[in-house]
Amino acid sequence: MSPADFERHNPNLIGGAITGGVNDLWQTFARPVARFDPHATPNPRIFLCSASTPPGGGVHGMCGARAARSALKQLARQPLGPLS
């Protein structure tokens, strides 16, 4: 598929970018949102580990590794009870 085909298939892939768009210096630290822990979400049970989180897209697995570290730190600070 061409970049235009990707974008037609999924409008979120602007310009066909499967890694979440531009990876400039600002986006390295502020994607998907500018916060101290970019892997955490308002829900303490959900963490982001996609190419949209630092260090960005690539074939390296660092997004998942960093999200896992973030989750483990959160659990160490505040253990979660059972799901209800």
Describe this protein with a few key phrases.
3 helices, 84 residues, single chain, mainly alpha, elongated
Outline of this structure?
This protein is an all-alpha fold and 84 residues long. 35% of the residues lie in helices and 0% in strands. The chain has three helices and no strands.
Structural notes for this entry:
This protein is 35% helix and 0% strand. By secondary structure, it is an all-alpha fold. The protein has a domain at 24-77. The relative contact order is 0.14. The model has no long low-confidence stretch (mean pLDDT 84).
Question: Could you outline the blueprint of secondary structure elements for this entry?
Answer:
Elements: H1 3-9, H2 25-30, H3 62-77
How much β-strand is present in the residues? under 5%
Mean pLDDT: 84
State the helical fraction: 25-40%
Shape: elongated
Largest sheet, in brief, is: none
| β-strand number | 0
